[in-house]
Structures are given as C-alpha cells and as structure tokens.
Automatic annotation (TrEMBL):
Pfam families: adh_short. It comes from the Bacteria. The keyword Ribosomal protein does not apply. Keywords: Oxidoreductase. Signal peptide: none annotated. Belongs to the short-chain dehydrogenases/reductases (SDR) family. This is Glucose dehydrogenase. One of its GO terms (molecular function) is oxidoreductase activity.
Amino acid sequence: MDLRGKVALITGGGIRVGRALVIALAKAGCDVFIHYGRSADAAAEVKAEAESLGVRAITYSANLADPVATDTIIPQAVETFGKIDILINSASIFPEEDLFAQTDVALWDKIFAINLRAPFQLSQEFAKQLPQNRNGKIININDAGIAKPDTNHFAYRITKRGLWDMTKIMALELAPRITVNGLALGQILEPPGDPDPQAFMENYARKFIPLKIPGNTKVVTDSALFLLEQDFLTGSTITLDGGQYI
C-alpha cells in the first residue's frame, strides 16, 4: 500500500505510542483522524504537528467504554475525510488495581469494553465503510507480556489475549480486501510521570531485556509502517520486546 493520500484512524492518538503513530503516518503522507479520550490538549498538539507535515488532521473525543460513543467514531471519520483506509486500535486501559481478588464486575466491564469490545466495534464498522473496490489495513496494538501468564493485571491480560486471537480470526474473515495484523509491545516507554525516563529505560534494559537495548517508539512506528506496506501478510502479531518474553 502506498500511504500517500490514505486516511488513517488512530485511537488513543493524543499521547505516548498513539501519538508517535499519528506523526509517523503523517510523515508518510497519510491524513489522520486522531481519536482521544480525555487528552484534549495533547491531541490538539499532535494535530498541529501533523498539519505542519502537510497532511489533513482532525481530533475527535469519544469514550471507548461507551458502545454508543464508540459507534460514532467511524461515521465521523468518514464524514470528515470521505473514507478510511487504515485503522489502528491503539487505545487501551491498564489499571494498577487489576488483580483477581480486586477486580469487580464494573472494572471487568470497563477493561473489556475499552481493550476488546471497542477494537471489535471499530474494526467491524471499518470493514463496512470500505468500498468493495478498495483494500484496507487494520493494526491492533497488543502487549508482549501476555506471552507468559502471570497473576498481575488479571482482566487486562485476558482482554489482550482475546485481542491476539481476534486479530487472527478477523484476518480470515476480512481477507482478501483487508489485512489484519498486530504489534505486541514490551517496555517501549517509561511509566507515565517517571522523573527520569532515560535512566528508567536504561536500567530496565539492563535488568530484563536480553538485547540490553531500551525500547522506543521508533521501533513501533517502523514496524507499523512495515505492516502497512505489506500485501502478503495478515493474521500476524509481531512481538517488539527485545527478547524479554521469549
């Protein structure tokens, strides 16, 4: 796929990995529809940066925990740009209190809604809006850590495992017009609010990553662009963790 002139919708596009994906796609010539939840100021900043690269950009806020709000995203993007060629499901929730004993039904429902139901809804609507004579691409951002079961982040892990399998099933369902792939991320960025990001990432790499190299968003954006440029790859999830979860 030649990305110039394509339209990409990125959920969670205002901050962190989502933001990096927006800018990478804009640099590649894509117009960008930037979904965000509450990060209005950050989304406005990334919109301005994308526009400075010569592409069209728009921000749109919707609560992915609400299925009605989620259902407005694709129609709004199509109304704005006339089409969507690329969907990147990047938004996710990662609650610290998500242990088995602590996870009540309300928290379970919220995590499942944002991490699994929203990508399903958006992918389904993306496929519906795509004309029969067009090809499309979906990328699901996942978590490399689910390769090894653990007791922490109980419901979160289950949703990400579901997203991994959903990527394969959708790839079969939506072929041949739409490819569906994933990126499973290891420690790509420091925790939000860390006072010394560089030191955190270097220490983490020394302790946990076999390659001893800190993660970074360029690893993610380069891999996303690789997936978008491939026409003979679908149903795959590429793990970007420096070997941590082998």
